[in-house]
Amino acid sequence: FGATLARDEEQNLWSTPHDVTHTEADDDRVLYNMIVVRNQLDKDSEEWQKLNYDIYTLRQTRKEVRSRWKHILEDLGFQKEADSLLSVTKLSIISDSQNMSKARDILLKLSEETNIFPTSWELSERYLFVVDRLIALDAADEFFKMASAVYPRRPGGDRGDEGPRPPQG
After folding, report:
1. Measured in whole angstroms, how far is the alpha carbon of residue 60 from the centre of its chain?
2. In a domain, 166, yes or no
């Protein structure tokens, strides 16, 4: 049973064990490659510890971003739908190709004008699907307004992010 959990954790490229919602986007491949390289190293080596920290940090950052999105969705009245709106799988599709440009614009605007993403965050394809769903629900503009209010960008471009802390021990 422990081996199965460990394998599931290694295959999980998004945030939590048994999360089947991850996509095979560029940011997932980066994480996967980090895991592969780490697993080829001696666990006592400094390189292994650094990679393990980087993997942990990336996963924690992803959890925090998802939590921020979920918080806003719930505040907008999507308490029951928040998880399904955030669920993106390899089978997910854009609901309307006409919305793709608008979804990209809104996602970029969220990145530039709010603190919903950390400073070092590269825009994830996952959130393009989420914004597309919000457009289909006619809630994208309200989401942006709420994100601007709840996670305002600090003056001078500083978002004031504190990175996640690694586990002790």
Report:
1. 9
2. no
Residues 6+ apart with CB under 8 A from 119: 159, 161
Q: What is the mean pLDDT of residues 104-113?
A: 93
Asked if residue 156 belongs to a domain, the reply is no
The parent domain of residue 129 ranges over 4-150
For residue 129, the Cα-to-chain-centroid distance in whole angstroms is 12
165: in domain: no
Neighbours of 52 (CB within 10 A): 17
What's the domain count of the chain?
Answer: 1
Distances (CA, A) of 16 to 10, 41, 105, 112, 117: 10, 23, 29, 27, 19
pLDDT digits (tens, 9 = 90+) for 120-136: 777 777 898 899 999 99
Angle value at C-alpha 125, between 123 and 126, nearest 5 degrees: 105
Residues across the chain: 169
Per cent of the chain over pLDDT 70 is: 73
Main-chain dihedrals φ then ψ at residue 152, nearest 5 degrees: -70, 150
